[in-house]
Amino acid sequence: MTVTLANPLRDGLRLERTPEPACLVIFGASGDLTKRKLMPALYNLALQHLLPTSFAVIGSARSRMTADAFRAELHEAVAEFSRTRPIDEEVWAAFARSIDYVATPDDSGYDRLREALARFDTAIGADGNRLFYLATPPAAYEPIVRAIGAHGLRGESGWSRVVVEKPYGRDLQSAMRLTSAVQEVFREDEIFRIDHYLGKETVQNILVLRFANSIFEPIWTRQHVDHVQITAAESIGIEERAGYYDSSGAMRDLVQNHLLQLLALVGMEPPAAFDDRSVRDEKVKVLRALRRISPEDVGSLTVRGQYGPGFVGGERVPGYHDEAGVAPDSQTETFVALKCAIDNWRWEGTPFYIRTGKRLPKRATEIAIRFRVAPHRIFTREASAGLEANELVIRIQPDEGISLIFGAKVPIQGLRIRSVNMDFGYGESFMVDAPDSYETLILDALRGDGTLFTRRDEVEQQWAFVDPILAGWQENRQELATYAAGTWGPAQADALIARDGRTWRRP
Amino acid sequence: MTVMDETFWGAQATSVDALERELARLRRAAVEDAKGRGHTLARASVLNLVVYAEREVHARRAARTIGELALRHPSRAIVLLGDHHREGVIASVRLHCQVPHAEGAQPVLYEQILARLRGNYDERVASVVIPLLVPDLPVFLWWTGTPPSDARHFDDLLSLADRFIVDSADFARADRTLPEIARLMRLRGGITDLNWARLTHWRELIAQFFDGPALRPFLAGVVGMRAGFAVDMDGREIHPSQALLLLGWLASRLGWRPVEALAASEAGGLLFRMRRADGATVMVRLRPRFERGLDAGDLSGVRIQAALGEHTAEFVVKRAPDRRHGTATAIVDGTLRVERVVVLSALGIRELLGEELTITGNDRVYEDALGALMGLA
Questions:
Q1: Interchain contact, A13 vs B364, CB within 8 Å
Q2: Do residues B142 and B165 make contact, with C-beta atoms less than 8 angstroms apart?
Q3: Would you place residue B182 in the very low, low, confident or very high pLDDT band (cuts 50, 70, 90)?
Q4: What pLDDT is attached to residue B105?
Q5: Do B212 and A126 touch (CB under 8 A)?
Q6: In B75-231, which ranges are E strands?
Q7: What does the alpha-carbon distance between residue B149 and residue B176 come to, in Å, rounded to a whole number?
Q8: Environment class of residue A298 by beta-carbon count within 10 Å: exposed (0-12), middle (13-18) or buried (19+)?
Q9: Do A93 and B341 touch (CB under 8 A)?
Q10: Active-site residue among A151, A258, A321, A376?
Q11: What is the pLDDT of residue A423?
């Protein structure tokens, strides 16, 4: 047979997203992530015709289970968690036909997995293309990857890739160790580290806003920007995640990955192209320029807090110490505020304030770019009393959108100026359901596009920034402040920004 | 002017200025009304949509579609309802406007204007439309029915439009009009066809057969292609444009050239002989079939036959009787290799238009598909 290069029917505007035939192997198939996120995402991709014709899913976990029982479990999960409901039974039935389950309680399980993969290769023509998804607790990452290598699970032909969930290490050392272990089996360009924030439409939109428009970039500098605030507020507590959360805390759970990603996207220089290499190169550069906060400085540049009892949404909620599964003397932080500096030409002297916390008054993730005030005031102080500096706010969740705050004349005789809000809501301009971030990310991994995944040097820069702060806290150079649930964090956080003559926004 | 008319199309105005005043009044009233119910009302507009219709049913269908799409694509919609043949009426323009808002959590304000044109209005159409366009927003022109060749009102409206939307399912003689559209396409870009959008799922399913290297070589060995499309019970009028577009797409992607159109078979289908890039022959048959529940012209199934050395293969996509699903099967040397049930719903005009309004660039593949059809006419 002759070898044809690309599929000529794939050309053009509407048909470019479907990946090549492949097998997806999910480790941790009986876990929560598989049920809540991965399977609903796969089902919705199937619904939109975005999965390849030849596609199989093999679930794997320690427990023994028949493929039928596994499919039944997934059906129930998809029916509960899919963003489109009710589920289309015929599409599900067709999709479920190529779902299999192989238990891996011991080494021999991996041999059975290899046989199952080989079977699918010929049965559906997956050509040896494999995507391994590590949806297990992090302790299992290394042993599974070793087993993939030792048992020859990579296909003889085609590509093999691995998706690694968060948390990716718990400090620089362990992250580097994990990367070395994974790299014994996979090349760096075959490793896809998930940060599901990057799969969100609005996060990708930061790049579009900045680099598809010409009006923002010229003022996106220290000359015009007074400071930047990045907020990720959650109203919920730790739910059922006490075991994981109490050993990691807000810094590892949110700042190291999601918030530093947002900071990098806002602070980065324009990449030369929208591809995995250019975008990630620029993000790494800005992370490298992020000034390290040494253990000696944590007293002045960081705040850590833990929620006490209080009220959220009218309900009385317990304090962190009273949550089930939390050690009574736990020193784990549930709130972090930081003052960061980026040491480069663009941002010298413009601080980036970051805060995140649990049990804050509402759920809101946003980035606010605060501009400098007009250089010369021509209006009287009385007239411009209601005037604030211009602000561009990128709201990430909920109610994604962008608002610009500027001064306008109040329509009366005489002159009074007030700040008004020009609001753009994605929901109102594009009345379609945005795809779930896992749909985007699974599709990208199947297509081999790493733009929205975290590269090795990126993860290492993130940890290199976070580690000394955690060390300083460990040495107790900054006390753990308590805040009442349902407030915007401890008073120390207000003091952190008030020292610079600024205040936190109310999102 | 009947009472019915007034309810459907809203208040009437005699001039463009009066119309703008009326729109402003309606906007304020809608905002007041929303305030009273504790909502804020956003006046949103992302595009101008000009609809041209010569039949009241088309105009009403368009108006309803725009209303349903208002949340996704809030627009200033200008519906032009022309009637060249009304006798005894001097050329006239009547304007109606409406500022409806959706019930529910997110009311959005959009505007709809109806201009009734009578008599010999060809020269004055543009002068009605231009002052009504919202500045700076793109203009989409949706032409219902068959676009005329060589008509002043058509040319004028076309020159105002950034994007031109037709539905070749409505063409009276698709085999003649499609090449016309192809010629127009060469002169200006930005043309889209709702019937082409109906094919997207079909094209996706066909393309997926050949994503893997195992079956892809068969693309170079296609010897036959058959497509069925729905006709009415009596089968007198056929609408083969969807099937023709699918053929045009395959021919342009795979480098087939038309050789001849053969005489219509006894079943009233279209027969073509095409030539592959390597000189071999491809026989094409587009066949009308009566299918319950499908609109006339909708595809009911596609079968592609290929031979490669000693191997033969058949690729079939078929619509299931429930109209919402389909099956995609590939058979190689008599053995079933792929069999899938997929979503293959017949899209309504609202979904189709909604999708088209998101596309502002040129669809080169559509252009190529039309180009491949030019030799068949």
A1: yes
A2: yes
A3: confident
A4: 43
A5: yes
A6: 75-83, 92-98, 108-109, 111-118, 139-143, 163-166, 191-193, 222-231
A7: 11
A8: buried
A9: yes
A10: A258
A11: 72
Beta-carbon separation of A4 and B204 below 8 A: no
Instruction: Give the Cα separation of A316 and A486 in Å (integer).
Output: 9
Q: How far is CA B242 from CA A71, A182, A414, in A?
A: 38, 51, 65
Residue of A nearest to B204 (CA): A15
State both tokens at B353: 């238009």
> Residue B71: its pLDDT value, please?
64
Contact residues on chain B for A87, CB-CB shorter than 8 A: none
Asked if residue B266 has pLDDT above 60, the reply is no
What would the mean pLDDT of B326-339 be, rounded to a whole number? Answer: 89
Mean pLDDT of A287-307: 96
Assess whether A151 carries a catalytic annotation: no
Q: What is the DSSP letter of B101?
A: B
Whether the pLDDT of residue A384 is over 80: the answer is no
Q: Do A386 and A264 contact (CB within 8 A), yes or no?
A: no
How far apart (Å, rounded) are the C-alpha atoms in residues A34 and A442? 12
Distance from CA of B96 to the nearest CA of A (A): 26
Sort A254 into a burial class: Cβ within 10 Å, 0-12 / 13-18 / 19+. Answer: buried
Q: 3-class DSSP state for residue A342?
A: strand
> Which residues of chain B are within 8 Å of residue A2 when distances are taken between CB atoms?
217, 220
Q: Which residues contact A9 (CB under 8 A, 6 or more apart)?
A: A15, B203, B206, B207, B210, B219, B250, B253, B254
> ipTM of this model?
0.72
Question: Are residues A49 and B44, on separate chains, in Cβ contact within 8 Å?
Answer: no
Is any Cβ of chain B less than 8 angstroms from the Cβ of A88? yes
- A273 CB near a chain B CB, below 8 Å? no
Residue A5 has pLDDT above 70, yes or no: no
Distance from CA of B304 to the nearest CA of A (A): 13
**Cα nearest neighbour of B42 on chain A:** A428
Mean model confidence pLDDT for chain B = 81
Does the reported pTM lie above 0.90? no
In angstroms, what separates the C-alpha of A357 from chain B's closest C-alpha?
Answer: 30
Residues of chain B with pLDDT > 90, as a percent, come to: 23
Cα→Cα distances A194→A127, A135, A162, A172, A392, Å:
25, 11, 10, 17, 28
Q: Please indicate whether, in this complex, the C-beta atoms of B42 and A428 are within 8 angstroms of each other.
A: yes
Q: Which amino acid is residue B285, in one-letter code?
A: R
Nearest partner of B250 among B279, B290, B210, judged by Cα: B210
Closest residue in B to A123 (Cα) is B337
Amino acid at A93: A
Q: Of B79-83, B109-113, B138-142, B365-369, where does mean pLDDT reach its minimum?
A: B109-113
Cβ pair A13:B308 closer than 8 A: no
Q: How far is A214 from chain B (nearest CA, A)?
A: 17
Mean pLDDT across chain A, nearest whole number?
A: 90
Largest CA distance in chain B: 76
Residue B225 has pLDDT above 80, yes or no: yes
The string of pLDDT tens digits covering residues B140-173 is 999 988 888 888 889 889 988 988 999 988 887 7
| Cα of A358 vs its chain's centroid, Å | 17
pLDDT surpasses 80 at A15: no
SS3 content of chain B, % helix, strand, coil (to 5): 35, 30, 35
Task: Give yes or no for A276 touching B (CB within 8 A).
Answer: no
CA dist A14 and B287 (Å) reads 27
Cα–Cα separations (whole angstroms), residue A505 to A179, A197, A329, A357: 38, 22, 32, 15
- CB < 8 Å to A11, chain B: 253, 365
Interfacial A residues in 110-169 facing B (CB < 8 Å): 124-127
What pLDDT score does B149 carry?
80
Q: Which two tokens stand for residue A90?
A: 């015929």
